[in-house]
Amino acid sequence: MIAKRPFPAHHLGYTRNPFGRLTDAEWAAVAVLPDAVRQALPVGCHHLQLLGPRGVGKSSALCRIVAELRQAGRRVAYEYVPPGQHHFKTDLADVEVFCLDEAQRLSWRQRRRLVRWGGAHGRLIFSSHRDLRRWFGWQRPFVISIDLQPLVTEAHWQAVLARRLAAFARPETPRLALAPDAVRYLHARFGADLRAGEALLYEVWQAAEGVRTLRAEDLQAALRP
Q1: CA distance 45 to 97
Q2: How far is CA 123 from each of CA 17, 116, 142, rounded to the nearest angstrom?
Q3: Which of 19, 90, 138, 147 is deepest in the core (most CB within 10 A)?
Q4: Topology of domain 10-19+151-223, per CATH?
Q5: What does the domain layout of the chain look like in residue ranges?
Q6: Model confidence over 112-141: pLDDT tens digits?
Q7: Phi and psi of 78, rounded to 5°?
């Protein structure tokens, strides 16, 4: 039997696999907000809708936003609506900003409840796979909607991966790295689906034997059956 390494990523220059499951604190720390989202945050009189399909970074952006607003002293509540659930459970009595993930799963009654609260009590920042602005009625001009999909450029991939690798890098240690053409390949192969690219990189890091710079052909080989 081959003995397992006690710290399986140390030989690669990392404290652990950088693309493994993250804690909430780690997730907030490594998330990269696109410039358009960051510019919308100070516009406190407007609600903010983050649009896009699975994997474009909606949840990551919300996680970062929640952390930054709390650090700034705002009373923020966050809730994720899981598959099969059609309502939110958060008590909004003392909340300034409500960040809701997967808002498209709400029933029409719950959407109306959400919009009423936003019109009278606080700011809504929510993610959705579908544009929900029509539910806001008179508030619609006060909803900033940002489609994240076109913002996931090659440069954004580079920023996301660089921050993820740096967060788990061992100091002053040679480490497994990605060449520019590897990042270019990920963007070409997965487009805006950051989650799919990170899943591939998790497997690549798990299988890696030592420190080197990974190129596009290495990632292509990892995808072959």
Answers
A1: 11
A2: 37, 11, 10
A3: 19
A4: Helicase, Ruva Protein; domain 3 (1.10.8)
A5: 10-19+151-223, 35-147
A6: 999 999 988 899 999 999 999 999 988 888
A7: -125, 140
